[in-house]
Design brief:
alpha/beta, Molybdopterin biosynthesis moeA protein, domain 3, binds molybdate ion, MoaB/Mog-like_dom_sf, MoaB/Mog_dom, seven-stranded mixed sheet, metal-binding, molybdopterin molybdotransferase activity, 28% strand, magnesium, binds ligand LQZAQKY5, 4 domains
Length: 416
């Protein structure tokens, strides 16, 4: 006969707290990781450890914005014919001077010769190469990008804590930085638990499901800037989970588990965490995501035990794990953007639990409308992929009328 372990009502979550309090407790588990020097090619998605100044003016010299002729605007009259004395393509490193009454050809991105104060686009001429006929005039300064008008040498162009998006990487390159001081990326080990789990690709037997929280969390952690170690799911066995936790901790700065944190007889993450190290079982006043575990293993590695229901796991990552990972990454702003949106239909929400409802933002009317997707059930994976926001209904609100404003957490990724 199989010996059934007792349901652990004695180990049921005892710490009851609101979402913000739990999020603060999680955020306190780790600070920004040490500074490393990264080549620019590996800088995207990481946070700067120091303020960065420009090494050069941008543009570094007066530069042409158009293909045409470098001219003195005062020499231009419709019908005038001027000598073309030189040809200045982009990349020409000579210091060219234009004599009075003459012009040079010039291309976009080439340095404007001294003596010229404007660029006459080729479309306003006959396009001549030895002599050029002026068909129309331009004002002094036209189509010249002046030295330093964008960025001045010595300007602080990015701040410590900025997470580097594509625009920032471009700016760092343009201002002369081949390497940057960034924080190390957090290494996250993801461990799913549950004897019902089989890898995707494996045919399901009765009672089995595909392991989906691990891949989901790995994708979310990578998008948050972490390096991910996705471990094979482990069965509901305390010793097996303890061994897997130790292995995970040896390979990561933080371990994220899913499943096994509730009050069931086989909720072994709870038991494994309580048996080894400092651990806290929490009942967070939220929906979904009520049961949570937080622990610090004997080697000092923090463990976040998320609930197994896929939507609970997704939402728990968003509000607890992602801010911690962003903090470890060194980001000055660890939170998602929040928006105010209206709801198309009335909503109800349980008293005393902060509800985070998956929604899709509809922008067709110009201002955002948060349309709930997938219903409140925390097993409803079908619509998860369509959600790009979470409607955040406070604990004390039980009813939201159609058309009312709500706060939403914007799940779309933004360049920093
Ligand atoms: N008597 C009570 N039962 C439950 C309570 C409670 O307060 N009293 N809380 C419920 C709530 S709320 C949640 S959330 C779940 C969380 O429980 P666990 O974290 O212990 O999760 P499991 O029981 O292991 O799994 C729940 C559900 O999710 C599926 N699952 C788990 N892992 C994965 C995975 N990696 N990929 C896909 N799906 C996964 C699992 O098969 C279960 O269906 O507890 C309630 N029960
Ligand atoms: O809190 Mo559970 O996460 O509602 O399904």
């Amino acid at each position: 006969m199989v010996e059934v372990p007792p349901a652990r009502a004695d180990l049921a979550p005892r710490v009851v707290r609101p979402l913000d309090e739990h999020a603060a407790a999680v955020l306190a588990l780790a600070g920004p990781l040490p500074t490393v020097t990264a080549p620019l090619a590996q800088a995207a998605g990481r946070a700067l450890a120091v303020d960065v100044r420009s090494g050069v003016d941008l543009p570094p010299w007066d530069s042409s914005a158009m293909d045409g002729y470098a001219v003195r605007a005062a020499d231009l009259r419709p019908g005038a014919v001027l000598d073309v004395v030189d040809d200045v393509p982009a990349g020409d490193t000579r210091e060219v001077t234009v004599p009075d009454g003459a012009v040079t050809r010039i291309m976009t991105g080439a340095p404007v010769p001294s003596g010229a104060d404007a660029v006459l686009p080729v479309e306003l001429t006959d396009g001549g190469t030895a002599r050029v006929r002026v068909d129309d005039v331009v004002a002094p300064g036209a189509h010249v990008r002046h030295r330093g008008e964008d960025v001045r040498a010595g300007d602080v162009v990015l701040r410590a804590g900025d997470v580097l998006g594509a625009g920032a990487v471009g700016l760092l390159a343009a201002t002369g930085h081949a390497h940057v001081a960034v924080h190390a990326r957090p290494r996250v080990a993801v461990l799913s638990t549950g004897s019902e789990l089989v890898p995707p690709g494996t045919p399901l037997r009765h009672g089995q499901i595909h392991e989906s929280n691990g891949p989901q969390l790995a994708a979310a952690a990578a998008a948050a800037g972490a390096e991910v170690v996705l471990l094979a799911a482990v069965r509901d066995d305390v010793d097996g989970v303890r061994a897997a936790l130790a292995d995970a901790a040896a390979r990561a700065d933080v371990v994220v588990t899913t499943g096994g944190v509730s009050v069931g007889a086989y909720d072994v993450v709870r038991d494994a965490l309580l048996a080894g190290g400092r651990a806290e079982l929490v009942h967070v006043r939220m929906q979904p995501g009520k049961p949570q575990a937080v622990a610090v293993l004997p080697d000092g590695t923090p463990v976040l035990g998320l609930p197994g229901n896929p939507v609970s796991c997704f939402v728990s990552f968003e509000v607890f794990v992602r801010p911690l990972l962003r903090r470890m990454l060194g980001a000055s702003d660890v939170h998602r953007r929040r928006l105010t949106a209206s709801v198309p239909d009335a909503l109800s929400s349980p008293a005393g639990r902060r509800q985070l409802l998956r929604a899709r933002l509809d922008w067709t009317g110009g201002t955002p409308v948060a349309v709930p997707v997938g219903g409140p059930g925390s097993h409803l994976l079908g619509a998860l992929a369509r959600a790009d926001a979470l409607i955040d209904v406070p604990e004390d609100v039980t009813h939201v009328a159609a058309g009312d404003a709500v706060t939403v957490i914007d799940l779309r990724e933004h360049d920093a």
